[in-house]
Amino acid sequence: AGLIGEKTQLIAEQATLARRRQEAAAGIPPLLLARYDDLRTKKRGIAVAALKDGSCTICGVEQTVLLTQQVRAGQQIVTCLSCGRILAVP
What we know:
By secondary structure, this protein is mainly alpha-helical. Helices cover 51% and strands 11% of the residues. It has helices at 2-25, 30-42, 65-73, and strands at residues 48-52, 55-56, 86-88. The chain has a 3-stranded mixed beta sheet with strand order 2-1-3. The radius of gyration is 17 Å and the shape is elongated. The mean pLDDT is 95.
């Protein structure tokens, strides 16, 4: 009985999260969303990495100064030179 209740709760939570994702994705251009989804599939669910102290927090590779500046500016999608994940400033 406890597992059935937990399963029901998880199904409801999954539906809520799917709806929230759909709402959040509505304002994203389809090509960018497709790129993100493709990365998420290829990178085992982690498409975005934080840029901390000039390095990718997933693979640890230090990025160039120019690339770091581009990430901080936030005007374009920038990917890690090593692992290819989208870089973001936390």
